Amino acid sequence: MPAAFAQSVPKMISGAVKDDRNDVIPRATVRLLTAGDSVLVKGEVTNADGKFQLSSLANGTYILAITAIGQKRFTSVPLTIDDAHTTIMLPAFVLMPAKNIDLKEVVVSAKKPLIVQEIDKTVVNVDAMLSSATSNTLEVLEKTPGVTIASNGEISLNGRSGVTVLIDGRSTYMSAQDLTAYLKSLPGGILDKLELMDNPPAKYDAAGNAIINIRLKKNRVGGLTGNVSMGYSQGKYGRSNDAVNLNYKYKKINLFTNLGYTQEKTYNLDNYDRRFYSPTAELISTVDLKNNLLNRSHGQSINLGLDYAASANTTIGFIVNINGGSGKSNFDYTSKNYDAKHQVDSIGAGKTTGNTSRTNVGTNLNFLHKFSNSGRELSADINYLTYRSETNQSLQNFVYQPNGALSNRTDFLYAIPSLINIYTAKADYVHPFKNKARLDAGFKSSIVDNDYIAQYYDVVNTVSFIDNAKSNHFKYHENINAAYVNSQKEWKRFGLQLGLRVENTQARGQQLGNEAVGQSNFTKNYTGVFPSAFLSYKLDTLNKNTFSLMAVRRINRPNYQLLNPFVFFKDQYSYTSGNPFVNPQYQSRYELKFQHKQLLNMGLSYNKFTNVIFQTTQAVDNIFITKPENIANGYMTILSTSLSISPRKWWFVNYTVRFLHMNLEGQVYTENLNFSTNVVRFEANNYFTINKNWNAEFSGYYASRDLNGQTVTSGMYQLRAAVQKKIWNNKGSIRLSVDDLFHSWIYHNRSVGLKQAEYFQTSKSDTQRIGFAFTYRFGKDTFARKRRHNNNASEEETGRL
């Protein structure tokens, strides 16, 4: 069932929980039971105000069972929900203290499951992933069930590529390469949860085949709270991930910050076998290429925010995020060129040294107003982001004769500074109706300005000369304006949601040119209409079994950096460039789902693609030139099953299996591409509770052969294990983890649809690692009972942040 169903106004029971001193009790457990046989219907935990709300209830008679640490169990009188009494708003329940309990300090301990299947999304609690403290955010994503990361950094969710990544609900607007660097700079210790959405509702941008929303840690408990995590992992090289999260809440003000620091040294080994053929398919030459990349980098991140409760129903917030880092790289390659008789024709060698730096700054002003108890809400966000980066590299290429004599040498430098400014504004309005209907509407406007400069220099006898033929200056401006409306209605068993989002895109690119390269421009103006429809049916009154059917239309716009026509040199035989003529890719999706409580989820989807964007490769004079193109149309069917069970009281396991069938038909540089493949992906995550202080996990992942554009990747697998010991009365923990136990996560790629050429590649990186982490929580995580001296209206408002 989609998110909007869960957010409608169904039959509900709400109330609050206090102690005998009239203090609210956060984190009290509220269970809704059937009055006749005390069968559990659903449960809830009170928020920081001690309040709870149980919604989406069927007609019936219920009782409430409320428990809290240090308090006696409370059971309510029977409560009846029917068509005449759809909403029950209860007065505060008062719990009495239990005997022989010291109320001065009561420690709350709770264990979060790793995966929670909600109606509209899958929620992953990062703290429950034992290896998260020794990992950066990109690695946390890679270990998340359903998420895969390709060798080029592209993120997929449940078999769907083109995923949009949000940070606290806000778009990053980064290219895949920049996003990879950014996520590597965020330590896993600052993450709270991941929200995985296969079918996002109309309020979200139409771009992307799926959404991953990364939620940073934020606590609303009164006083000062926080946690520290320090992680170190060792593979061939070492890596550290450290984080501090602080939260201070006093009356109407809530301050929070996330601080992170990462430092790493990594390697990547690539072996290529490239073969070139004549028009009659006769072998002409072969190139054996070995690449060795060594990276050293460090990154810092600061996220600082303030929430202010201007009134009981109005909150204003401000967030500033600063993320920066720098790195040094050393890239070495060697090559051997063979003729048709496999005799050595020439030998190549090269070296590239580089320095990169980046500074990202984002600011956000947000507003939320709730119109009393009617359920109506108005929210607004204004964002400004600026991304500044610079890359400087020195390249040397040598060509030797078979006897070892030097026949040619080329040296050149390049500097690529870049500046991106992004401005966004959006507003959303929610209006529920009494007949279990709801209307959502909103708009969003975004402006992106990208200024990209490339300066190439030839070096002769240590003297640099600018190469205007390779240098350029590219500017790109994009403005997207969107509006949406979402209507929804619930009946006893059925739920229906209809959404419509309209987006207009206006873009212009300008290649300024120079003495050797002419000036050129392009403009784009197009409007997309993106309807969505969701239908759900509850098989029983307790909402244990649900079928849902949905249909949506989505768009994948080429990232603005993919439109940049610059040529980038990896080595003497490998160039990449952008393409200003790439058009958006569209997708229509139809999906049927079944969910049985938190135990079983099954889904069958059909996805139709037009104007598929892939990185294409063309062989020109023994050089591989790669750039994005709209190469094909196609479809993909996905059958997925997720099962969560407890074979033993101390053992919990989650299995996920996905079967994908993919078919693409198109043309790449006059070569016909007609490819069909079947893909199987299997994940098993085991969690063991050894005793109250020890727990462990063991996970495995397998992916069969896969297709990405002109690249076919062979099957691969990896295994992970971790153990945790809780210390200091559950306030601290130490963790030991091992990733890729057998160093089996190695890419074996081969080409398809490559005109008069083919290649085979093996890629290996520092994935086998052993890690150690320490975490510690501090502050008012314990609840000391304090008597109030002034019970005025303003004090009641302070807990509503």
TrEMBL record:
This is Outer membrane protein beta-barrel domain-containing protein. Pfam families: CarboxypepD_reg, OMP_b-brl_3. GO terms for cellular component: cell outer membrane. Gene3D superfamilies: Carboxypeptidase-like, regulatory domain, TonB-dependent receptor, beta-barrel domain. Its main location: membrane. Residues 369-776 form the Outer membrane protein beta-barrel domain. The lineage of its organism: Bacteria, Pseudomonadati, Bacteroidota, Cytophagia, Cytophagales. The keyword Membrane applies. It is found in: Cell outer membrane. The keyword Membrane applies. Keywords: Cell outer membrane, Membrane. It comes from Spirosoma radiotolerans.
